[in-house]
Amino acid sequence: xxxxxxxxxHRDEIMGEWVRRILTEVSERYSRRPAAExxxxxxxxxxxxxxxLTEDDFSKMDxxxxxxxxxRLDVGFALSxxxxxxxxxxxxxxxxxxxxxxxxxxxxxxxxxxxxxxxxIRIFSDHFQAQHEQxxxxxxxxxxxxxxxxxxxxxxxxxxxxxxxxEINDGYFLSREGRIIFANKAFCEMHGYxxxxxxxxxxxxxxxxxxRDRLTKMHEERASTGKAPDQYVYLRLCRDGRKxxxxxxxxxxVYEGETATAGICRDVTERVELEKQTLRLVELENxxxxxxxxxxxxxxxxxxxxxxxANTIIxxxxxxxxxxxxxxxxxxxxxxxxxxxxxxxxxxxxxxxxADIKTAEYTPESHTLMIDLTREIERTxxxxxxxxxx
Length: 390
Hints:
- By secondary structure, this protein is of the alpha+beta class.
- It is built from 14 helices and 5 strands.
- It is elongated and about 135 Å long.
């Protein structure tokens, strides 16, 4: 079954499970939303995901994100809540993909799903942040007209911004000249430290050694040319020594009158490991095809050996029988022909026994085994000879 047909077939099932889990698992605010409203938004989101996954058409998703951003901000939803609702689509769809999608189509489908979720959450986060930034800008303009309350209003604005940053599930940090000057709770927890232990340290202290050279080079390019990638995956270094995959999205900003780098740090260990497993499945499938081809070649060589020998002997004995000077000589030739005919039947019997040739299961060392057709033929011939001698 291909991806489009799978999504069409399981559309109602996916929607129903998505709605159920949003109303029961995401947050208390979601559980209080009317079920009819959630079904309506999930119906739109399902159609948008379908267009993105099957046609690379993200226009429906972009329109839906604009709508849902306004809806959820108006009732006080946190960014992490809506991110969690979007992520549930992958959780609901993944078991169906693994169970029913053709193996050869699985890598592309998983890549499409990951790109789709990445696009969705990134665009939504940008919209969400833009809405807040717009609100902050409007608030700042109003503060300019109320000089008397400027200091108090700015402090409140900063507190709201910090609260927003602390609410998101992803890590958020600010760095200047390579050192962290601000980090939210999620960033610190991802690395196993407290906020006080993080602020002031060099960012490379939280990067695994094998990723430091690449990140250092990107930092230098960003500072000198501004052309370094703003989104990248690397290995972070946790306090307990673990090295886990992270994805950073960074940009250069002005903070407190000076240039700084702001970034969102997201754990992508599960996604990277899944991509590795998918690649291994493709490699195993290629190995399986190679083994099947080798088995076929072995079959042809083995059959050619036995049948050619039998044909040569039968032909020689037939000519010898024609030239026989006595009945005894003719009888000996016919017996030799009969013996080779019986051996040929034995070969055919052995071939029937292994007619459904399959490669064996993979061993823990990832080696494969082939059916030994020669051994099967020899066993059959020995058994036939034993029965004749009784």
